[in-house]
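Appendix B. Chain record.
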Amino acid sequence: MSRMIFINLPVSDLERSKAFYEAVGFRNEPRFTNDDAACMVWSDAINVMLLTHGFWKTFTSKTIPDAQTTAQVLLALSQESTADVDAIVARATAAGGRADPTPRQDHGFMYGRSFEDPDGHIWENTFMDMAAMDQGEPMPTEAA
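Structure tokens predicted for this chain:
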């Protein structure tokens, strides 16, 4: 089996979250979906498990942070073009998410924007022009 990542996110409303993630381009995997959890597939290697708060609590006794006011991680997805970056942010906004909770980035060779899901989890979306990167463009030291 190839290596995969399963990102587990606590969500307050499973059906709302499933609809949101489908709207931005994830696919639901019904074999791993029930009343407490939904597996949302981004690619062959990337899966997001949306877990109700009650189910989440069966995995850890740690407090579920309020992602509307705190951030523990910034999740990032690569995109095929700058247009794809803009498109996923537009789909997220149309589905009830919030556009650009983190600063936009445009460094010529790297372009990025973000969205926040209804529970406040932040997804950064980035296109990197590897040809421009290979020409020696320096990496920025801070967000633009």
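Further analysis of this model is presented in Appendix C.
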